[in-house]
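Run: sequence + pyridoxal-5'-phosphate -> complex structure.
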Amino acid sequence: MQSPEGPRSKKVVERDSKVFSPADRIRYYSLVVSKAEGSKIWDADGKEYIDFLSGAAVTNTGHRNPKVVEAIRKQLDRFIHGCSIYMYYEEVVKLAEKLTEITPGEFPKKVAFGLSGSDSNDGAIKLARTATGRTKIMSFIGSYHGTTFGALSASAISLKMRRKVGPLLPEFYHVPFPDCYRCYFGHEPPCNMQCLKYIETLFDMFIPPEEVAAIIFEPIQGDAGIIVPPGSFLPRLQDICKKHGILFIDEEVQTGFARTGKMFAAEHWNLSPDVILLAKAIASGMPLSAVVARADLMKWEAPLNFFTTQANPLSCVASLATIEVIQEERLAERAEKLGKKIMDHFNSLKKEHELIGDVRGKGLLIGVDLVKDRESKEPDRKAALKICWRSWENGLVLATLGRFGNVLRIAPPLTIREEELEKALEIIDNAISDVEKGKVPDNVLKQMGGW
Ligand SMILES: Cc1ncc(COP(=O)(O)O)c(C=O)c1O
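>> structure
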């Protein structure tokens, strides 16, 4: 197989394979980043790409957004580490105030900071148990919450994450999420809310609801394949939680910060979560996470949940600048508008491409579900990987996700220019045609691990 990467990229990848842990990367193609700006990435050999991945829904404001860069630069000249375990600094206060103000829910809130989406889930689990005195945690099949032990215990998406590492945390229960394209109960739309009935059945038969501390949910399941629940599902789930005194934990690590066309996806359904979990786009790529919770729940004591470099001042100022850019440039509205355009585009391509089974999402969090045939909906994971490969060859960074690994992940920076967007869509269209005509050989799959 001819490798399309240049000699410099090739060398880095060869060296990497000798020293970088294989559990720490999902393999696609040999993209060695040397520079990134806005919606563009350049590799080590100078080749330019449009970015449809945004570093896994992180660079919502674009790579190196000038305002974010400026905020980090200024802070670099003051101090890099303040250690908020022992000291105070205003940047962290300002950010906590801002997060409590912009997150849904009209009640006093407090914030616990960390470094990654995974640790925010672990924090939320500890918070739920300490606040309620209950131990059981519910989450959804298909959910991805991260790789630390708590987050991993809540996740239910990949055997590769779970094999051999157990025992995981006890008292975790996974229930089906309403995936209306491939319903776990084999039901055809409109949804009959079997997933809610299932939870109620568990509560009637073997899980005493008064022992359940929290239900953790992604408002739109991301890595499961961009699964948008039907209209009344989340509000009704919230009602069930209220009825039984169960904390309603909104995991917005992937959906947050305007990605779905609202600052937080919970706003699509007017939810008022007890706890909201944030990371990824929160600081445009600087490491930061946050557990934003009802103030009255935070009765826990140090050192139960802290990290030495939590709320790093560089990350805090980057986050404040990120939020400012999202608000000033109305990026939520922009995501909604561009997202509609992209969904219309892929829906219209269904006429030409039998491979496209379903197009779904909100804002600029979109999944294109590829199938072997529309009747059986059998997932076509190989085709999805080949499309990513051909797109990469033609200058587009595209990845897959989904519980079957067959969904194209469409998540460009929210600042992407319209001409870049059109070019990227053309690249995907051509890649789909090439794959349908058998022009992308099977041997590319050797390099493509995918989900
Ligand atoms: C919904 C969701 N939660 C949690 C995580 C884990 O975040 P991190 O990789 O920053 O620990 C991810 C990452 O993909 C995610 O998509």
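>> summary
The first strand starts at residue 33 and ends at 37. Residues 56, 116-118, 144-146, 218, 222-223, 251, 253-254, 279 surround pyridoxal-5'-phosphate (CB under 6 Å).
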